[in-house]
Amino acid sequence: MSVAFRRESDEEHREPRFELPIPPGPNLVTAAGPALIAARVAELEAAVDAAPEAEREALARQLRYWHTRAATAEVVALPQDPDEVGIGSRVTFRLGGTERTITITGHDEADAEARIDYAAPLARALIGTGPGDTADFQGRADAITVLSVENR
């Protein structure tokens, strides 16, 4: 019989499962970052214990990612100057006529709305600026006007 018609198991035909990718560079977090990461680890540990065998591998992969992120987290202090944007700053700015407020955080603390990763292009444009400053963004000079900065 031809090998093409033989089927040993489904396991040999599955795609390999790689680990979740770790973002390049240091794992910088705000003062709240370690607690957020620890909460995620605890949540995943409970989920792995309660999950059926078929789901445990995927949850265990996520848990390994979060354990790595917890071990490599580096808490960054707020900028010394209270009017300077840095990691942990809450910034109100105007971009394209629209006013918006965001907080610059570490990668694992970011969400799509109010908290952005310090490595995001918008955050990189804002870091180091202060109220009244303008910054270049998306190839446009002075596209961003910083209105206020809170460092607490």
Structural notes for this entry:
By secondary structure, the chain is an alpha/beta fold. The protein folds into two domains: 18-75; 90-150, Transcription elongation factor, GreA/GreB, C-terminal domain (Chitinase A, domain 3). The protein has three helices and seven strands, in the order E-H-H-E-E-E-E-H-E-E. It has helices at 33-50, 53-72, 121-126, and strands spanning 27-29, 73-75, 90-95, 98-105, 115-117, 134-137, 140-150. The strands form two sheets. It has a five-stranded mixed beta sheet with strand order 5-4-3-7-6. Strands 1-2 form a two-stranded parallel sheet. A hairpin with a 2-residue loop joins strand 6 and strand 7 (140-150). The longest helix is centred in the middle third of the chain and has 20 residues, at 53-72. Keywords: Elongation factor, Protein biosynthesis.
Q: Strand sequence of the main sheet, in spatial order?
A: 5-4-3-7-6
Tell the overall outline: elongated
CATH superfamily caption of the largest domain: Transcription elongation factor, GreA/GreB, C-terminal domain
Helix content: 25-40%
Please report the distance between the alpha carbons of the first and last residues: 72 Å
InterPro entries: GreA/GreB_C_sf, Tscrpt_elong_fac_GreA/B_C, Tscrpt_elong_fac_GreA/B_fam
GO biological process, one term: regulation of DNA-templated transcription elongation
Biased composition (Basic and acidic residues): 1-18
Region (Disordered): 1-22
What order do the helices and strands come in, and which of them pair?
Elements: E1 27-29, H1 33-50, H2 53-72, E2 73-75, E3 90-95, E4 98-105, E5 115-117, H3 121-126, E6 134-137, E7 140-150
Parallel strand pairs: 1-2, 4-5
Antiparallel strand pairs: 3-4, 3-7, 6-7
Helix pairs in contact: 1-2
